[in-house]
């Protein structure tokens, strides 16, 4: 049994592609395609990449900060900070690899679409 959601919360792709939001006075209505075209798609992509880059920074900084805090707490300076650097570097490298793989997949998809046109 499919649960009916309010129109604004519907998430199936067909309804999102067909539905448009309208704004402004009647004579100057601008359609905003929810399927992700134009300026909105560019902003969404930029926000996703900004999120991934900031995640990379946190993956590096948080283990180092945790290592420094533990060093101060237990008097083991600098060993836990060095462990934090190693752990943070490994996490950041994995995150960077994930980001590069995604960028490569997106580039290959766009090349495939360009060739089919």
H and E order: HEEHH
Terminal residue distance: 40 Å
Proportion in β-strands: 5-15%
Question: Helicity, in percent?
Answer: 55-70%
- Describe the strand arrangement of the main beta sheet, using strand numbers: 1-2
Number of strands: 2
Largest sheet: 2 strands, antiparallel
Shape: elongated
Poorly predicted ranges (pLDDT <50, ≥5 residues)? 5-34
- Please work out how many helical segments DSSP would assign: 3
Could you please describe the fold and organization of this structure?
It contains 3 helices and 2 strands. α2 packs antiparallel against α3 (79-116). The model is unreliable at 5-34 (pLDDT under 50). The protein is mostly helical. β1 and β2 form a beta hairpin. The protein has a domain at 60-112. It has a two-stranded antiparallel ribbon with strand order 1-2. Helix content is 69%, strand content 7%.
Task: Give a summary of the structure in a few sentences.
The chain is mainly α.
Question: Which structural traits does this protein have?
Answer:
3 helices, 7% strand, mainly alpha
Please describe the topology of this protein.
Elements: H1 13-18, E1 20-23, E2 30-33, H2 38-74, H3 79-116
Antiparallel strand pairs: 1-2
